[in-house]
Write a structure and sequence with these properties.
This protein is an alpha+beta fold. 35% of the residues lie in helices and 9% in strands. It has a four-stranded antiparallel β-sheet, with no helix packed on it. Strand 3 and strand 4 form a beta hairpin.
Amino acid sequence: MTEYAPQQAGDPFARSRAYFGQMAGWLAGDEAAGLTHAELEEQSGGRGRELTRRLFQEHLGLRAAVKVTGRRGIQVWIPVAPGLSYEDTRSWVEQLSKTIGGVVPDLVSWKWDVRDRGGLARLDYTQNVSNKTLVAPYSPRAAPGAPVSAPIAWAGSRPARRPAMCCSRAGR
């Protein structure tokens, strides 16, 4: 997985501010002016997700990685400092999930059943439990098409209708 650059001294949000300035410049430029509404929405959404990722990374000092499970899910892996208890990390993950859900409620559903979510994501902090089996990266799943659990780059983490599209036959 890609390593992140270490935080710089001084303003921890300097890179996010610069990226926001680039976004604003792009929106005011000729390239954005030539896009359809749907194209503009898609590209703005991707840039907005990147800005959000940068803000979380810089504000919370998160150094996370994303992995598709090879089925329906996407997992975010966040390294933790030594010495934290299981209960500390479990509680923090729950708080983080609920905070994200509060910031972007139009993207998150807390309903368990996929059919009841209306296409929204479920931030399932309840997966962070003891004795829970997680699929290791690059593991094929026992399912039609042999989907594979695989890390993905943050830049490639746009909303996916079917995270299981990573499969051994496709090699991606």
